[in-house]
Amino acid sequence: MQNNTNRSYYLVPYFGWMMLFVIAPLVLVIYFSLFDLHGNFSFINYQNFFTSVYLKLTLSSFWYAFLITAFTLAIAYPTAYWLTKTKHKQLWLLLIIIPSWINLLLKTYAFIGIFGVKGPLNKLFESMGIGTQQILYTDFSFIFVSVYIFIPFMILPIFNSLDKMNPTLIDAARDLGSSTWTTFTKVIFPLTINGVKSGIQAVFIPSLSLFMITRLIAGNKVITLGTAIEQQFLVTRNWGMGSTIAVFLIMFMVIIMILTGQKDKGALSNEQIK
């Protein structure tokens, strides 16, 4: 009985942290969303969210988040697969993860210099006779930089899933006459689907709320839910509308986590077969 009491004390910091930094901010966001620009209690912000402006903004945010996630997955999966086959895979994985330790703002400004009119990329184009190109403030630059930033977060869970997979299952599929494509679609990918889902969560969810990259790289030509929240709080000072957008953004994130949060149903690993 005494041990159970002592264990319950250990949960106090956890519940205190959750109340202060998770529950309380959510309650405040919901509270502010119920007031209009003049501080009157109203549901007008929720009505405004379902107008064409904000619905288009939401669809645009999902579209860009989908593109970023799709390109990231297309690059990360073969990269993670290649890493599992290399001799010093942990070293290569570390080299891929290290850029994620650098401050996001520093990396963004680095790309401003690279993609700038007088940057090294345009210098290369000029030497090739292509001429100066406007790379910054385009959809291409926004997606490229976003994919670069999120790639480590997609590679890591996929690498862990591939690394835990028992290689004898692949050998068995090939012994039974499966082609390389069939082996991948019927054996490898299904056994690593949970890693893919974790990577999608780590990329798609933050992609919905990007705002700094849209400011600096896309030049506000790309507007996401995160950018709209920033504008409502800092520009128009409409905290109610900003909080309302934040409420819907949280709801979208929860739905995505539910859709991609399937538990592992028992993929066979090396340890399980041994």
Automatic annotation (TrEMBL):
Transport in keyword set: yes
Location of this chain's protein in the cell: Cell membrane
GO cellular component, one term: plasma membrane
InterPro entries listed in its UniProt record: MetI-like (IPR000515), MetI-like_sf (IPR035906)
Primary location group: membrane
Membrane topology per record: Multi-pass membrane protein
Signal peptide: none
GO BP terms in the entry: transmembrane transport
Domain (ABC transmembrane type-1) ranges: 58-260
Chain segments annotated as transmembrane: 12-34, 62-84, 91-115, 135-159, 238-259
UniProtKB keywords: Cell membrane, Membrane, Transmembrane, Transmembrane helix, Transport
Family of the protein in this entry: Belongs to the binding-protein-dependent transport system permease family. CysTW subfamily.
Protein's name according to its UniProt entry: ABC transporter permease
